[in-house]
Structure formats: structure tokens, C-alpha cells
Design goal:
Layout lengths: L1 E6 L6 H11 L4 E5 L20 H10 L3 H5 L4 E2 L6 E4 L13 H8 L8 E8 L7 H6 L2 E6 L3 H16 L7 E6 L7 H8 L2 E6 L3 H9 L11 H24 L9 H10 L1
The protein binds adenosine-5'-diphosphate and magnesium ion.
The site of magnesium ion (MG) has 5 residues, from helix 1.
Organism: Geodermatophilus pulveris
Protein name: MinD-like ATPase involved in chromosome partitioning or flagellar assembly
InterPro entries: P-loop_NTPase
Length: 267
């Protein structure tokens, strides 16, 4: 299952939230850094200690026809068990214009035959080379927004744009980062006209572990940010799964026994 995460202008926190969600996901998950402005996790959470070609290498493999086969070798572990993994983003944003987002989306939507969910950090909506094909293919699209008037205004525009695509209206939801500045989930949901998946509190200490690799400390897993991320992850998983089921094509009619046997004889 593929879940796309993006933001409107003036709403920082997408990558940090994506990481928090990948680490809290109820099943194995991959955080795919697809922000055309470039990847941040290797230098941030990874403190520059990890390296991988990530998206750039994968794109080269794709041109040789081996995208799905090479995905696994580009993933890095985000936790000790490897339940959460990372597809590192572009080191050089200039590479974004060469990425075939359509082809990548098709592979990310079916990682390990759907046993692994992918949370795609798509960065800012309307950015040049924004991975729109990934958004179109996703089971759910989550717009991260702040709760200031300025942020909610920008989010309203962004939601209208996201819902513009045919047949996508039910798939868009929002995630509030830092609620209560001054608006809360209910007001934001009403203003945007979409479901609010939940909120992640402002928690600078825990956020800096994720965004800048600050030492995690004993209490990191119990921080307000990570506790909220577990709730949001569960709700988002349910939201996306419900929509994925609705989107799935109806099952093909079951052939009668006679037809099936006849078919195999012909072959
Ligand atoms: N929930 C949060 N609470 C406090 N600070 C946060 C939170 N989420 C993100 N930040 C901070 O905001 C900054 C930008 O975050 P980042 O995730 O890189 O944004 P984006 O991916 O949207 O550019 C970082 O310094 C990060 O620590
Ligand atoms: Mg980012």
C-alpha cells in the first residue's frame, strides 16, 4: 500500500512526520524520500553515517529495466529490526527532472507484493518536478498542515488542487502538525472539508532526533511526538486500507470448472 505525504507552502515538518510515521507503522514500512528538492534523512536522522545511492541509483537501474529488482538493495534500516526502512532521496535535486515518477509509483505501490507499505515523502505541492504520479497512484494522500490561519489558508488551496484529480476526492486527508496555534483538528477539518487523520504535537526535542540526528535518549520512544505518531499511524493505515479496498477492481468472474479444465488443455 502506498501513502503519499505532502505539504502546502509554509508548513514544514513533512520529512520529520514521515519518519515518525514509518517508525511507528503497525507493519513493516518503507519511507521513500521522493521530495524533488532532495533527501534529508541520511544527513539528518542518519547523521551522515549511512550512505546509499537510493533514488538516484534506482533511477539508473530503472533505465536498464531492473527497477523492482534493485529496490531492495537501495533500502537502509531505520531501526534495529529493519521493520522500518528508508529509500534515501536525491543527494542532488538536479536529478529530479530525470526521475520517471510513474514507473517508480507502480513499483512502490506493490513492494513485496503489498506486504510492505510505503510512505512517500513527496515534499511541497507545486514544487517543480513534484511527484504527481505518486500522488495519483497512492491509496491515500495526506496533506500536512500547521494550525495557524496562514497555514490553513494555504492548505485550503492545496486540498482543492489535490482533489481536482478525477476520482480522488475521497482519498485526501490532512495531518495537523502543531495543533492549537490557534486552530484545532475540528476547525481545520471543517475549513478544509476533508478528514483529519490526527495531529502531531510540537515537540522540538523529539523532532530534532528525527530531523537532525540529535541523541535519542531513553525517553524518545515515549515522547509526545512518538506517542502521537503511533496513534496517527494506526488511523492512517485504516484510512488508506479502506480506500485501497474501495479502489480495487472488482474480482474477475470465477470461471466454471469446465472452462478452466478446457483452458489448460488448450495450453
Ligand atoms: N512536530 C514537530 N515539533 C517540533 N518541530 C518540528 C516538528 N516537525 C518538524 N519539526 C522541525 O521543523 C524543521 C523542518 O522539518 P522537516 O521535517 O525537515 O520539514 P520539511 O520536510 O517539511 O521541509 C526541523 O527543524 C524539525 O526538527
Ligand atoms: Mg523534507
Amino acid at each position: 500500500m502506498l501513502v503519499a505525504l505532502c505539504s502546502a507552502k509554509g508548513a514544514p515538518g513533512v520529512t520529520t512526520s514521515g519518519l515518525a510515521l514509518a517508525l511507528s507503522w503497525p507493519r513493516p514500512a518503507v519511507l521513500a524520500e521522493l521530495d524533488p528538492a532532495g533527501g534529508d534523512v541520511l544527513a539528518g536522522y542518519g547523521r551522515g553515517e549511512l550512505s546509499a545511492g537510493g533514488l538516484a541509483d534506482l533511477e539508473l537501474a530503472a533505465r536498464r529495466g531492473g527497477l523492482a529488482r534493485h529496490l531492495d538493495s537501495q533500502l537502509l534500516r531505520l531501526d534495529s529490526e529493519g521493520r522500518a526502512r528508508l529509500l534515501p532521496g536525491l543527494a542532488d535535486p538536479a536529478g529530479a527532472r530525470h526521475v520517471d515518477w510513474d514507473r517508480l509509483a507502480a513499483v512502490l505501490a506493490t513492494v513485496e507484493d503489498g506486504a510492505v507499505d510505503v510512505i512517500a515523502d513527496c515534499g511541497r505541492l507545486r514544487a517543480e518536478h513534484f511527484p504527481a504520479a505518486v500522488v495519483r497512484r497512492a491509496a491515500a494522500v495526506v496533506l500536512a498542515t500547521g494550525s495557524t490561519l496562514r497555514a490553513v489558508r494555504a492548505a485550503t488551496q492545496a486540498i482543492a488542487e489535490l482533489r481536482g484529480g478525477e476520482g480522488r476526492a475521497g482519498l485526501v486527508a490532512t495531518l495537523v502538525i502543531g495543533p492549537g496555534e490557534p486552530y484545532g483538528e475540528r476547525e481545520i477539518g471543517e475549513a478544509l472539508g476533508v478528514q483529519v487523520i490526527g495531529s502531531l504535537p510540537r515537540d522540538a526535542k523529539a523532532a530534532s532526533v528525527l530531523s537532525d540526528g540529535a541523541p535519542a535518549g531513553r525517553l524518545f520512544a515515549q515522547s509526545a511526538l512518538l506517542r502521537a505518531a503511533r496513534t496517527v499511524a494506526t488511523r492512517l493505515d485504516e484510512f488508506a486500507a479502506a480506500h485501497e479496498t474501495r479502489l480495487a477492481p472488482p474480482p474477475a468472474p470465477v470461471p466454471s470448472a469446465a472452462t478452466a479444465i478446457g483452458d489448460s488443455r488448450v495450453r
